[in-house]
Amino acid sequence: MINKFKDMVGIEGVKIKLEIPSEVKEKDGNIIGRVIFHSKRKQQITELRIRLLEKYSRGKGEQRLSDEYELSKLYFDRPINIEADDTMELDFELPIKLVKSDMDEFEGRFLIGRLATAAKYFRSVKSEYRVEVEAKVKGILLNPFTMQEINIR
Fold first, then answer.
1. pLDDT reported for residue 61
2. Is residue 123 a part of any domain in this protein?
3. pTM attached to this predicted model
């Protein structure tokens, strides 16, 4: 009975670790990383999703607004079998596809760029990026999940 409950909620099930650099350059085009799976019990991952997300914030105090955008994703739907007390690694390359606002486009120009940078500063415009990994495991209700922030220059 206890083992059935553990299996259902994922206790002693698949644990996910994400290895990515703390900073990448947009011109590199990809985030190269590795997902490491470990399980104390024999498990089967039926789906795996890796996503690059941007949290775009602007404004101050009560006027602060935030939006979240999915910039790119990888989706694996082939089964991944993990044996008991085993570790498995999956290397990946996640494309970097940043969305540029008109203000971002102006920043690349000489005189207008300085005005755009100042306007973004005074409006407290900020973008934060993170990579999320979620796996669906056969017979488990709660999906294992991890995320890590990344700086994109």
1. 77
2. no
3. 0.79
Q: What is the 3-state secondary structure (H, E, C) of 17-76?
A: EEECCCEECHHHCEEEEEEEEEECCCEEEEEEEEEEEEEEEECCHHHCEEEEEEEEEEEE
Q: Is residue 122 part of a domain?
A: no
pLDDT-derived band at 122 (thresholds 50, 70, 90) equals low
Q: Is 80 within a domain?
A: yes
- Mean pLDDT confidence for 39-60: 89
Residues of the domain holding 24: 2-54+68-97+130-152
Provide mean pLDDT across the span 128-139: 92
**46 CB neighbour count, 10 Å cutoff:** 16
Residue 79 lies in a domain: yes
